[in-house]
Amino acid sequence: MIDVAHVSYTIGSTPLLRDVSLQVQPGESVGILGPNGSGKSTLLKTIYKVLRPADGEILVNGQSVLSMSNRELARKVAVVAQESEAAFDYTVQEVVLMARYPSKKLTDAYGPDDLRIVAEALDTVGLSHLASRGYLSLSGGEKQRVQVARAFAQQTPVMILDEPTNHLDIGSQIKTLQLLKASGKTILAALHDLSIAARFCDRIYLLHHGTVVDSGLPGQVLTGERIRQLYDIDAEPFQYKGQLYVRFL
Amino acid sequence: MTMGRLSQLVQRRTGWCCLVLTILLVLSLAASISIGAVSIPLSQVWRVLLHTAFGWFDVDGIKEGTQNIILYLRVPRALLGALVGASLALSGVGMQAFTKNPLADPYVLGISSGASTGAVLAIVWGVVLPWGSRLSIPAGAFCGALLSILAVCALARSGGQMTPIRLVLVGVAVSAMFSAVTNFIVYTAPQDAQVREATFWMLGGLGAEWKDLLLPALLLIPALMIMLILSRPLNAMMMGDQTAITLGVNIEKIRRLLIVVTALLTACCVAVSGCIGFVGLIIPHMVRSLTGADHARVIPLSVLCGSLFLVWADAAARVVCAPAELPVGILTAMVGGPLFLWMIRARKYGFGR
Q1: Contact yes or no for A222/A48 (Cβ under 8 A)
Q2: Which of B189-193, B272-276, B308-312 has the highest mean pLDDT?
Q3: Of the residues B40, B151, B285, B342, which has the maximum number of CB atoms within 10 A of its CB?
């Protein structure tokens, strides 16, 4: 579904991504882990076309993203990024309604179907009661959930998430990720929390200084040694009731 | 109530608002035609208008002088006020969206300075064109405005992406240069009368003949349609560039279109009526504070409110110190400034923070 092949990206003379390759199969949930500055966001941005890679190729559904218009890509891939600005105060409903833009012709008005999709998306993330509130008056966590609702309302087969839960409380984190997982969409997410990643990802890529240092099942890549290499702390993965967790020492 | 009905309600409400404002605009135009140095009873205004337009009623009892004042002075002037007010408000909405900055107005990219230089050149130096005729003030202003916006775009583009912040900064610099040239020309003008004429022009006024209406009318209609079609991508762009891209908006293309539309609108306004301030700044804010930020609502309502505002401002400018006449730009700033302050202080209104 997503196929990243030998992608490099440089700012000035600083390489941010070096020969990164990554695949996500349809229906799979794949996590990207790595310390700050390891290139997680940069990698995601090259996939959703905010950045143009210096080298390599990125395919979504077998088609190069650079050959697609923004609109075509937005019908395939929805993005929850770390951008929560708003120049003017739109209501939550209006913000989520923006997700319907790529599926409409410029001159087509939004119809009842679009509003139903928006209402459902808001209901899914549990924010129906905020539909007519101003987006700017929301807390960081609420804004993030609105963005998740918007991504749902885009009704794409693929979702890319850049730390989708960094403003959420622990309950909302788990609920949001469960929702995403239950949606059956193909998911690629940059994450910070190792235990949460282990719980929700089918596979994990470890990124360090812009290169993939390891990839595989959570149990294979989240080893004490790797965690020490990436984050410079001592950690101990352990199983509890069949789940993988990471304990820091 | 279902979401579907809710939405229809909102859209229908915008439609109703537009209808009410349009009726109000027609009534205001008639009222403003009756107001002036010579005040003409409203009944006579209606009779002359309907007789001329549709052949209804008769105009036997009305002096020919009065009829001429109505048809050749007041009507074009009122219509020009409506057109310019609408264009400035629309252009203001466009610029605020373009810069994502609530403080932007139509002149933010230095258009007024360029136009002033062109106009002053025409007034003071009496520039003669290659084919022998004198450069007229509107033509000078229009060329100056386009020249300045082209300069700003070209300079902002060189060596990097044409981001809004770059454009605004380059606009400030270019604007300062044009102002310096304008001031130099005015300061060294040989005749006081020319200085007075130049000053009056720069403050903005709506003296109009029928032929002045053509260009603004021809421009406003397609501009309004383009802006309405752009309303959804504009909404998405207000959520940040990256978000807009991931929602499928081609932001480069939309920005270019937006610049062309607003620049032409503003240049045209400045050419026919000088630099009328504050309309483009406050009208979009007023509308947004009442209806919310959705451009599908802000655009049509701002256009109508801009018209109404300028029609009444011009009517007031004609009577405040009658029989002399105030440049309408002084009045819009005098009214607009306090109005804006009141809005900021009295608000629940969350611009953009």
Answers
A1: no
A2: B308-312
A3: B285
Question: ipTM of this model?
Answer: 0.92
Q: Read off the pTM.
A: 0.89
Is it true that domain B31-347 has CATH number 1.10.3470.10? yes
Q: Is A132 on the interface with B (CB under 8 A)?
A: no
> Omega before B323 cis (within 30°)?
yes
Q: What is the band of B159 on the pLDDT scale with cuts at 50, 70, 90? A: low
Is residue B10 scored above 60 in pLDDT? Answer: no
Q: Would you call A118 and B3 a contact, using CB atoms and an 8 Å cutoff?
A: yes
B211 touches chain A (CB under 8 A): no
| Alpha-carbon A216 to chain mean position | 18
From the list A101, A118, A136, which residue is nearest B233 (CB)? A101
Residue A66 reports pLDDT greater than 90 = yes
Name residues 256-295 of chain B within 8 A of A (Cβ).
288, 292-294
| In the predicted structure, residue A202 carries a pLDDT above the cut 90 | yes
Q: What is the residue extent of each domain of chain B? A: 31-347
Residue A52 φ then ψ, to 5° = -110, 120
CB-CB contact of B274 with B327 (8 Å): yes
A75 touches chain B (CB under 8 A): yes
User: Cα–Cα distance between A149 and B286 in angstroms, integer?
Assistant: 30
Q: Choose the mutation target among A72, A76, A88 for the interface with B, i.e. most B CBs under 10 Å.
A: A88
